[in-house]
Amino acid sequence: MPISPETLTKARDLRDQFAALGAQVVKADVLQPAETLLDLYGEDIRARAYLTADPLRGEMVLRPDFTVPVVQMHMESHADPARYTYAGKVFRKQESDEARANEYVQVGYEVFDGQNPAAADAEVFATIANALAELPVRAITGDIGILTAAVRGLRTTDARKAALLRHIWRPGRFKALLKRFGSDTIPPTRAALLDAADPFEGAGPDIGLRSRAEVAARIAALRADAAAAPIAAEEIALLDAILSLRETTPHVLSALRDIAVDMPAIGDAVAVMQARTDALSKRGVAVEALDFEGSYGRTTLEYYDGFVFGFTAPNRPDLPPIATGGRYDALTAQLGKGRAAPAIGGVIRPDLMLEIA
Description:
The chain is α+β, with helices and mostly antiparallel strands. The chain is 44% helix and 18% strand. The strands form 2 sheets. The protein has a 9-stranded mixed beta sheet with strand order 1-5-6-12-11-10-7-9-8, sandwiched between helices. The chain has a 3-stranded antiparallel beta sheet with strand order 2-4-3.
C-alpha cells in the first residue's frame, strides 16, 4: 500500500519539531549491509527483515529501522553529547499478522549523552509524549535492565546465566530454560548420551556443518550443565515476581525495593529507575499515573537493555504501538568496537497518529 501524502506531511512536521529542539537531521540508505544485523541478531533476523543479494555489495537488507545506521554514523562522528532526528520508510516482515503493514514511515528522536542517563531517558520519553499529547494514547514503561540484573545475580553457572540473557527477548524460550534450569531431572535421551563412555560410538560418518570437535565441545557443555545444581525455587519465584509486575510506577518501585531485600543484585537497577522517575517528574510527567510492566519490551528487536516505553491506543487494540523507544547502551559498544556512547531513542508512526486522531 503506498504511503499517503498526509502521512509524509505529518512525518516532516514531526521531524522538523524534533529538529527545533536541537536534533540534527540525518538520513540513512534504504539498503543496509546485512552483515551487521546478522552479527547482532543471528539468523533469526531473516524471519523479520527483507534480505537481498547485490552482485557488488554482497548481502543487503531493506532498512528494518534507523537505529543501527544512526548509531554507526554517531560512532564515526565522536560527537558527545548529540541529538538526531530522521523520517523515512522502514520494512518489516509481518508473517504472523497480515493486517499489519510491512512498509511504513518512522520518525525518530535519538539522544547520545552519557553524562546524565536518567535525564536523557526523561527527555526522550517526554519529547515523544509531547508529540502525542493531543491523541488518545496510553503510555507503558518497563526496564530490561532490572531483569538482566536479576539474571546476572542468580546463584548458578555463568553458562546458564548467559543462556537466559540471550533469550530475554524470546519469552517462551526464556520460560522454558528457566524451568529446565530449576529442575534436576534430565530427559532420558539426553541422560543416555551424557552417560555414554563414547558418545560417538555407532554415530556413523560425520555429516552437516559442525565438526566432531564442535559436537564434542557441546556434549562437554551439556555434561557440565547436568552436573550443576538447580536454580533455587526462591530465586525463580523472585524472577517471576519481577516479570509479573503491572502497576503504576511508584507502586512498582515499592515492590522492587521489597524484592531487592531477597535479591540484592537488582539494587543498582532499582536506583537507576528511581533516578529516572525523578527526572520524568521534573519534565512534567505524571509518574504517579505512569504504568510499568515488568515484561514490557521483550518482543522487540534485541538492542534495548534499559528503560523501554511505548504508547498504545486503548480504543484501537487492533493497532500496533503508535510510538516505542528505549535505551540501547550495549548496542553502541558493539557497533563502536568497544567504545560505548550511552544512548536512548524513540520512534513514532505518523500514519497511526492520523488514524486515531
